[in-house]
């Protein structure tokens, strides 16, 4: 099955690579418009498969529309051949071109099952590749709808094939056949997949896990920070790679921050269904629910204190876990350093900004940091060891800055999505240098030594003026 899909993709890619970039990109401007126009149908399917609240589903839809619009508008410029300085002035004319890699394998998780496939596939296709997608096994319908909309926007048949059943079942069949692998998922799986790509020496890009810190610094407004923390921790029921799971608050703001954060969290409207006013929905699956519940039980049994939430809510849904704030969390607890990927956050009081920064960076992960304050936050932003730093917001300001790269430092990933890097990674840079008039060698009967002297003199002059 995978063999056939890759062979079909390889055949379709040959013609696709000849289509001008502007035409390829125009399809995704149309796709972007379709996504906005067909939003209620898309939101219904996202919600049906993931159980997330409607606003979280909308944020995902918006991300898809904006990112595909961005590449639809800017890809031609990014992919345009670039003139480069040649080996010898006048004599060598050099250009850099970006060739598609061929067939791109894309493996995506269940938490953002519309935008992650769409926003990885769109730049791969615009760069001239074909794609074989393995969406997560929990979210097949929304992947099919995404492809149907791309076809409706004018994407030729055969360039994208979706294989259902998930990466666990099909990943090791796919990786031996593709020319590039884009993986989004946990760091543990990322390592397995990376090893398989390394074996074949194919390029690989990975967006992995996070244990993202938020810092409330000395010149922050603790009330505003407490409002932002609710979005930062509990959007998409915390099942979000860039969401906040650790908060460090300087001692002078701690009480004020906690008072508002707990009150705001307890005021959240919890529920299921399509009502736009619901702030948080259930977790996607029994497995995810057990993971979150067990981490909280482990933390509380080792001395963590529940400041808000902490209960399962079968009265709302079988997989509902309340938005939960913990204090007294230590590294001996599973959620002290490990990713929860659910609506659970640990809050710590710290002496000053320096301690907040040091403890924020004290993690193997490096995906996103959120820093709150004025000048102190700007200074801290340059010291955070994460691929994105979001100042005075949780994550959305950096994630939605599509012209800039997004991805992880440390064990949170390799490579970047969004911006120039997110498109160029799906290409092989190629240098074409044309030598004119004379070769790079002694001219006629010129001796090697005379040639060496002449070149040294000429390049000496050139290096002075250029
Ligand atoms: P996971 O690693 O278990 O699964 C992710 C995807 O990988 C799924 O599609 C799954 O089918 C596939 N997969 C599983 N085993 C595989 C294997 N051996 N070979 C190939 N594919 C395989 O992760 P999950 O728990 O389902 O998803 C949540 C994780 O994803 C979290 O760690 C989260 O932080 C991360 N994530 C990261 C980003 C990002 O942009 N950095 C975005 C979303 C999710």
Describe the structure.
The model has no long low-confidence stretch (mean pLDDT 98). A seven-stranded mixed β-sheet has the order 10-11-12-9-8-13-14, sandwiched between helices. A six-stranded mixed β-sheet has the order 5-4-3-6-7-15, with helices on both faces. The radius of gyration is 25 Å and the shape is globular. It is α/β, with parallel strands linked by helices and 466 residues long. It has helices spanning 2-16, 21-37, 39-50, 54-79, 115-126, 140-152, 167-174, 187-200, 222-234, 251-266, 286-301, 334-337, 353-361, 375-381, 396-399, 419-424, 448-465, and strands spanning 82-84, 92-100, 103-107, 130-134, 160-162, 180-184, 204-207, 212-216, 244-250, 305-308, 324-327, 344-350, 368-372, 388-391, 413-414, 427-435. The protein has 17 helices and 16 strands. It binds nicotinamide-adenine-dinucleotide. The site of nicotinamide-adenine-dinucleotide (NAD) has 27 residues, from helix 7 and helix 8.
Briefly say what this structure is.
β6, α8 (187-200) and β7 form a beta-alpha-beta unit.
Comma- or semicolon-separated keywords:
17 helices; alpha/beta; seven-stranded mixed sheet; 466 residues; 16 strands; six-stranded mixed sheet; binds nicotinamide-adenine-dinucleotide
């Amino acid at each position: 099955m995978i063999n056939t899909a890759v062979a079909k993709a390889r055949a379709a890619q040959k013609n696709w690579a000849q289509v001008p970039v502007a035409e390829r990109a125009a399809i995704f401007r149309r796709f972007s418009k379709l996504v906005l126009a067909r939003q209620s149908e898309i939101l219904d399917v996202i919600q049906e498969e993931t159980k997330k609240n409607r606003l979280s589903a909308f944020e995902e839809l918006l991300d898809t529309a904006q990112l595909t619009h961005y590449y639809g508008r800017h890809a031609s410029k990014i992919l345009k051949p670039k003139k480069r300085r040649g080996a010898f002035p006048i004599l060598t004319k050099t250009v850099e071109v970006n060739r598609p890699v061929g067939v791109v394998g894309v493996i995506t998780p269940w938490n953002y099952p519309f935008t992650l496939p769409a926003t990885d596939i769109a730049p791969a296709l615009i760069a001239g590749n074909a794609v074989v997608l393995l969406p997560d096994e929990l979210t097949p319908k929304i992947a099919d709808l995404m492809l149907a909309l791309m076809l409706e926007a004018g994407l030729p048949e055969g360039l994208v094939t979706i294989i259902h059943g998930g990466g666990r079942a099909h990943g090791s069949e796919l990786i031996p056949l593709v020319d590039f692998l884009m993986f989004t998922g946990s760091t543990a799986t990322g390592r397995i997949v990376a090893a398989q790509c390394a074996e074949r020496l194919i390029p690989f890009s990975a967006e992995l896990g996070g244990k993202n810190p938020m810092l409330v610094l000395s010149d922050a407004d603790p009330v505003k920070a407490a409002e932002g923390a609710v979005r930062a921790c509990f959007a998409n029921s915390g099942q979000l790679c860039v969401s906040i799971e650790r908060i460090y608050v300087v001692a002078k703001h701690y009480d004020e921050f906690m008072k508002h954060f707990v009150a705001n969290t307890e005021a959240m409207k919890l529920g299921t269904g399509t009502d736009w006013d619901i702030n948080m929905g259930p977790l996607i699956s029994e497995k995810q629910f057990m993971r979150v519940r067990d981490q909280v039980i482990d933390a509380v049994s080792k001395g963590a204190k529940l400041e808000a939430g902490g209960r399962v809510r079968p009265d709302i849904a079988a997989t509902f876990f309340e938005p939960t704030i913990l204090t007294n969390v230590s590294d001996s607890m599973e959620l002290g350093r490990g990713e929860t990927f659910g609506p659970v956050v640990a809050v710590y009081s710290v002496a000053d900004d320096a301690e907040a920064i040091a403890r924020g960076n004290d993690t193997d992960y490096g995906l996103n940091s959120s820093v709150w304050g004025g000048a102190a936050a700007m200074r801290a932003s340059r010291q955070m060891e994460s691929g994105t730093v979001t100042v005075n917001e949780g994550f959305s300001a950096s994630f939605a800055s599509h012209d800039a790269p997004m991805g992880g430092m440390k064990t949170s990933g390799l490579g970047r999505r969004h911006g120039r890097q997110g498109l160029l990674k799906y290409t092989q840079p190629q240098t074409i240098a044309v030598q004119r008039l004379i070769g790079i060698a002694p001219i006629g009967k010129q001796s090697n030594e005379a040639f060496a002297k002449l070149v040294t003199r000429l390049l000496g002059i050139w290096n002075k003026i250029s």
